[in-house]
Amino acid sequence: MQQRLRPELRRERVVDAAERIFAAQPYEQVTMDGVADEAGISRALLYRYFPGKNALFAAVYQRAADRLVDRVRLDAEAPLEEQILAGLDAHLDYFVANRNAVLAANQTLATDPVVQDIINTELSTLGDRITDAITLDPFERQRLSAIAISWLAFVRVLCVQWLAHGHFSRDELRAICIDALNAVIPAQS
Q1: Which of 51-77 are b and which e, b meaning 16 or more Cβ less than 10 Å from the residue's Cβ?
Q2: Fold of the 7-49 domain
Q3: Where in the chain is the domain with CATH 1.10.10.60?
């Protein structure tokens, strides 16, 4: 006899299944029937948890953003650039493994307010972590925050272009991001 799952655990399993499908297929090809099949539930139950594909995708993308942000913890005592680059590498790893989901969030759903809020919150949180890792007066902190968020947005746009068109290698992409970082964030001693 199969044990009945608690609703929150069932929902997590649905998001797990959707995560696999959104990673493997372009957004336009993902169907709610396919997600229900992958999750081993009925379509009706899937719609109980998520009113549509956009809401389901937003849950997948929110979880991914939370995981990525959790992986980027900056220590004021450690070299800032090394920590930022470790965070960049974590993001690049995710982007490669989840190309279709990243392209969906940044192209197909570029005007979806929920998805864009997830992206903007992630950028803001990462920008705050960068500025929190350096002791600055309030004016310099605001200045660095604006620079960090701008660099993060640049990296995001460049990564989307890389995923969509492959004009350069991952190593070239990383080098461009590092060069841009070095150009905008002063070296810390």
Answers
A1: eebbebbbbbbbbbbeebbeebebeee
A2: Arc Repressor Mutant, subunit A (1.10.10)
A3: 7-49
How far is residue 8's CA from residue 6's CA, in Å, rounded to a whole number?
6
Measured CA to CA, the distance from residue 116 to residue 110 in angstroms comes to 7
Averaged pLDDT of the chain: 90
User: What CA–CA distance (Å, rounded) separates 85 from 56?
Assistant: 31
Q: Determine the distance from the C-alpha atom of residue 24 to the mean position of all C-alpha atoms in its chain, rounded to a whole number.
A: 16
Q: What is the pLDDT of residues 84-115, one digit of tens each?
A: 888 899 899 999 989 999 999 999 999 999 99
- The identity of residue 100, as a single letter, is N
Read off the tokens for 104.
């969906």
Q: How many residues does the chain have?
A: 189
Give the closest residue to 140 by CA, choosing from 149, 131, 129, 153: 131
Please identify every stretch of the chain with a pLDDT value under 70, giving residue numbers as ranges: 1-3, 186-189
What's the CATH code, domain 53-184?
A: 1.10.357.10
